[in-house]
# Entry
Amino acid sequence: MESVIVAIDGPSGTGKSSTSKAVAAKLGLSYLDTGAQYRAITWWMISNGVDVHDADAVANAAGKPVIVSGTDPARPTITVDGADAAGPIRTEEVTSKVSAVSAVPEVRALITELQRTIAKDAEHGIVVEGRDIGTTVLPDADLKIFLTASPEARAARRSGELKGVDVHATKEALIKRDAADSSRKTSPLAKAGDAVEVDTTELTLDQVIECVVTLVDEKRTAAK
Ligand SMILES: Nc1ncnc2c1ncn2[C@@H]1O[C@H](COP(=O)(O)OP(=O)(O)O)[C@@H](O)[C@H]1O
Ligand SMILES: Nc1ccn([C@@H]2O[C@H](COP(=O)(O)OP(=O)(O)O)[C@@H](O)[C@H]2O)c(=O)n1
# Structure
């Protein structure tokens, strides 16, 4: 197997971004954070006065922003209409509105197309992380991983990042976002039937990275 495509899905705070970046860097693969793309389009909607709860308005505007993702795992980037969006897409406002925007089918169709093009163009292969990569975006991925962790562990990790934020409020917000992402009609957050589930609650980040690297190596050996 010359080039390898790895899909990593799961709810918020399970370790998708940290694991995917590290695995891609170790194996010389590209890296794509698909959540950053949904955050970027959400940021554009907010900045341009589009009501994110008006699905028709979001659908009509969905084709306007030009979103570009840099896929070097050592320095992932995201721009919207040429402007660096890495900071603005992480605000609480974007986090609280992204599930409404990402549920709009026209948004998903456009972003899915973009993701498939990026994966196809990755010379040595790519690690793509999100919610629907194994089920919808790249159903033929060489390896599919579904990360899970208890809501308590996930909330503790997230509130550790956002210093001073209450862990209970973080947990409630995570549960609410997961519920919205899991219950939408178009490509909800779900484990693909052929994905390997890894519960990271009791694992260190290094253990999770090691586990995924081993699974990729096994796939590569089997394909020889
Ligand atoms: N297995 C783990 N044990 C402890 N902390 C972790 C683990 N995996 C990730 N983290 C930390 O949890 C936070 C959220 O991880 P992240 O990779 O952004 O998750 P996701 O992309 O699934 O939302 C980060 O601060 C990260 O360093
Ligand atoms: N493949 C994907 C990735 C993210 N998303 C949406 O984008 C949001 C933000 O994703 P993210 O990966 O940045 O979220 P965090 O868990 O890192 O906070 C999710 O809550 C989903 O609403 C999606 O619908 N499909």
User: Anything to note?
Assistant: The two ends are 6 Å apart (CA to CA). The beta strands are 4-9, 30-33, 67-70, 77-80, 83-84, 125-130, 143-148, 196-199. The mean pLDDT is 96. Residues 10, 12-18, 157, 161, 200, 203-205, 208 surround adenosine-5'-diphosphate (ligand 1) (CB under 6 Å).
